[in-house]
């Protein structure tokens, strides 16, 4: 028998999305890597472990990835419910965020990480403020994360301008480059909180480093109307005109889309993260996922 570090057993083992779960399954781990998985009897015959985790009624599955978070906003949980996004942001969240500090962001992120670990989430994509602090928390706790400093036309609690936030993004890319679990992304906030010039600068930075771009896009009907009024087109087409739609773009929410928007996102191979809980909390609508 081969000695391993950990054997995990459970009632069901999910190995991939296309195969039925294995009844009474097990996983063997050595040097931080899964080296074998399958029926419990077979694993226990081939391996003995320094540590066992036995869950007779448990599910063993690959770690979940949360494709869009503002992790430190756990500190705002329960604040200002039953309001539309624009009111919620401008009258409640933005004023509270003005008082954020790296210490508060660290506490909120630690809580979010604990909750993610408890529900089986092992990686997350985070757009928020003081993201170097977020990265340090993730580094210490051991999760995997894609992390980007929020970029706005106006001052944020962390930086005096969008340009300064982009400079911080470049610094973070250099600081965390090569880290096995932390990847830095370029994160303009929305098409309506970032001017075309700022969006182009964000695009250029992402192109320079081959980084992923993360942006809230077409989150509400109000946003769709606002971008149509300002630029004569939909939020999706607006980003396309500026050269941001590509396979490295993660478009978040995507509630207010028409058929042409959907076709354009598909043709440019952009990725979409829909956020049903957030969109229902703020009555923003539901993303047309089936379409």
Count the helices. How many? 10
Q: Mean pLDDT across all residues, rounded? A: 96
User: What is the CATH architecture annotation of the largest domain?
Assistant: Alpha-Beta Barrel
The percent range for helix content is 25-40%
- CATH fold call of the largest domain: TIM Barrel
Order of helices and strands: EEEHEEHHEHEHEEHEHHEHEH
Keywords:
291 residues, alpha/beta, Urease, subunit C, domain 1, TIM Barrel, 2 domains, 5-stranded parallel beta sheet, 4-stranded mixed beta sheet, 12 strands, 38% helix, globular
Description:
The chain is an alpha/beta fold. The protein folds into two domains: 2-60, Roll (Urease, subunit C, domain 1), CATH 2.30.40.10; 64-281, Alpha-Beta Barrel (TIM Barrel), CATH 3.20.20. Helix content is 38%, strand content 28%. The chain has ten helices and twelve strands. It has helices at residues 40-46, 85-97, 102-118, 131-141, 162-176, 196-209, 221-231, 235-241, 259-267, 276-281; strands at residues 2-13, 22-30, 33-39, 47-60, 64-69, 121-128, 144-151, 182-184, 187-188, 213-217, 249-253, 271-273. The longest helix is centred in the middle third of the chain and has 17 residues, at 102-118. The termini are far apart. The mean pLDDT is 96.
């Amino acid at each position: 028998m081969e000695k391993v570090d950990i054997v995990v057993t459970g009632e069901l083992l999910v190995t991939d999305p296309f195969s039925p779960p294995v009844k009474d399954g097990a996983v063997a781990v050595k040097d931080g890597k899964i080296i074998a998985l399958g029926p419990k009897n077979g694993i226990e015959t081939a391996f003995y472990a320094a540590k066992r985790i036995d869950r007779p009624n448990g599910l063993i599955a690959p770690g979940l990835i949360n494709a869009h978070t503002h992790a430190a906003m756990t500190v705002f949980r329960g604040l200002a419910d039953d309001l539309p996004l624009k009111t919620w942001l401008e009258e409640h969240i933005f004023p509270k965020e003005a008082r954020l500090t790296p210490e508060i962001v660290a506490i909120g992120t630690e809580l979010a990480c604990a909750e993610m670990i408890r529900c089986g989430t092992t990686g997350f994509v985070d757009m928020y403020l003081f993201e170097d602090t977020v990265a340090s928390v993730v580094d210490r706790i051991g999760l995997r994360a894609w992390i980007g400093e929020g970029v706005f036309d106006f001052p944020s609690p962390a930086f005096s301008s969008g340009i300064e936030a982009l400079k911080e993004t470049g610094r973070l890319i250099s600081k965390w480059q090569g880290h096995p679990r932390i990847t830095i992304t370029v994160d303009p906030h929305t098409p309506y909180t970032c001017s075309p010039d700022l969006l182009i600068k964000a695009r250029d930075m992402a192109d320079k480093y081959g980084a992923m771009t993360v942006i809230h896009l077409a989150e509400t009907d109000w946003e769709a109307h606002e971008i149509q009024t300002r630029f004569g087109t939909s939020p999706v087409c607006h980003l396309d005109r500026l050269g941001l739609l590509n396979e490295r773009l993660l478009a978040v929410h995507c509630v207010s889309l028409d058929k042409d928007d959907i076709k354009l996102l598909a043709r440019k191979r952009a990725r979409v993260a829909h956020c049903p809980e957030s969109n229902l909390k703020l009555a923003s609508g539901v993303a047309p996922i089936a379409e």
